[in-house]
Amino acid sequence: MSLPDLPRWVEANAIADDPHGWRKPIGDGFALGHDDARLIVIGGAADPASVAALATARPDHALLVAIERADLAVATGRAYERAWIHTLPAPDELPDDSGAVAIDSVPDVVDGALAGELAWALGRGPVYAAWLDGAPASFAFAPWRSARWFDVSVDTMPHARQLGLGAIVAAAMIRGERARGREPVWGANESNAASLALAERLGFEQVDALWVCAPRS
């Protein structure tokens, strides 16, 4: 069984097409997982007991669950919250992206978790950066792509936030991906006010939701 190519399932369909992804039956449903990304998407008619067992077996993976299946989110035994899914109805109205360029390696000024995230993203497609005081400080990339959609990810270094750089790199990345025939999806946990505000600034509108069950480690 596969999942329709809808904005809520962009990660699921990307994992299904990834040679490093895996698929596991869980009851009458299934799980699609990616260990490098530490992410699992639950699909089909999964039962709570099977989801609970999977969550226990992979404590360091986040789980995505359909918004209609709060029983599965509860069954994980983890903290969980709603993530709002957005699409972009008027992409021609994106802000100016002057100053954003595609990079081909992780900048020396970046380290830790962000460096690992950018290295992983560079193996999957373009990463766009904007500069502050002569150094790259804000980044946008698409960690997941399905046939129709791509997931927008933006990360700005702490000293460069609230300066509008996130909007610049996001706009550049969205234009680049749309030129390749896909449309953007923006997912943000409802507690992430900054991400939701940036989505609104770029013109995204809420169309759906998922439950995000946090990893235990």
What does this structure look like?
Helix content is 27%, strand content 33%. It has helices spanning 10-16, 48-57, 70-75, 112-122, 165-178, 193-202; strands at 21-26, 28-34, 39-45, 62-66, 80-87, 101-103, 127-132, 135-141, 149-151, 153-156, 183-189, 205-213. The mean pLDDT is 95. The two termini are 31 Å apart. It has 217 residues and is of the alpha+beta class. It has an 8-stranded mixed β-sheet with strand order 1-2-3-4-12-5-11-9, sandwiched between helices. Strand 7 (127-132) and strand 8 form a beta hairpin.
Considering the chains and any ligands shown, give keywords for the structure.
12 strands; alpha+beta; eight-stranded mixed β-sheet; 217 residues
Report the mean per-residue pLDDT as an integer.
Answer: 95
Helix residue percentage: 25-40%
Cα Rg: 17 Å
Oligomer: single chain
Largest sheet: 8 strands, mixed
Strand neighbour order, sheet with most strands: 1-2-3-4-12-5-11-9
SSE run: HEEEHEHEEHEEEEHEHE
Number of strands: 12
Query: What's the end-to-end separation, in Å?
Result: 31 Å
Shape: globular
Strand content: 25-35%
